[in-house]
Structures are given as structure tokens and as C-alpha cells.
Amino acid sequence: VQLQASGGGLVQSGGSLRLSCAASGSIARFNSMAWYRQAPGQQRELAAHITSGGTTTYADSVKERFTISRDSAKNTVYLQMNSLKPDDTAVYYCNAFRLQPYFNYWGQGTLVTVSS
Known about the structure:
four-stranded antiparallel sheet, seven-stranded mixed sheet, mainly beta, globular
């Protein structure tokens, strides 16, 4: 499985970006997909998560600003990020998870930089 993340870049505070994570093959295989982020000097943390049934969860810090969605026809998961803040600056990683059989895949990461 390969996960190709894209859409990062430099944006001013208050701006928007949409990240994409394209999977090599059907995303229906996965129990869930998610976006994690890792800021400089910080641990990787979950930003948003979506199950195969479409249930979404968000970190408190991004609620009401970020939206995760999936397009099964395109085998792609998106992260729409609005009202961006400098604290959102991080490398964003796509993740795909399946319990049985177990696998846990990571994309290569895409850098989001929010200037004040």
C-alpha cells in the first residue's frame, strides 16, 4: 500500500488549505484513515480520523476548523483546513489502518506552514 499526501504549502493565518491522500488501491480495505501532524520538536498527534462507516473524530485543537472526508471512487482522503493558525504549522501525515489482518501504513508527509 502506498499513500501519497499532497496539498501542503505556505499560507497566512486565517487562510485555508486542502490536503489530499491518494491510496494505491481501494480505501475500502481500511477500517479507518486519519491525518496526523507533527510540529517541530513535538510528538506526532492525531488531527482527524474517519472510519470506513464515515464516523469522524477530531482533536480539540482543530474542531470546527478542519474537516476530514473520503472519496471511495478516487481512493482518496481529504483534510479541509480553514481558519488556519500558526500553531497548525506541522508536517501532516496520512495514515491507513486495518485490524484484521493488521496493517498500519503512513504516507510521506506534507508540510503546512502558517505565517502570522
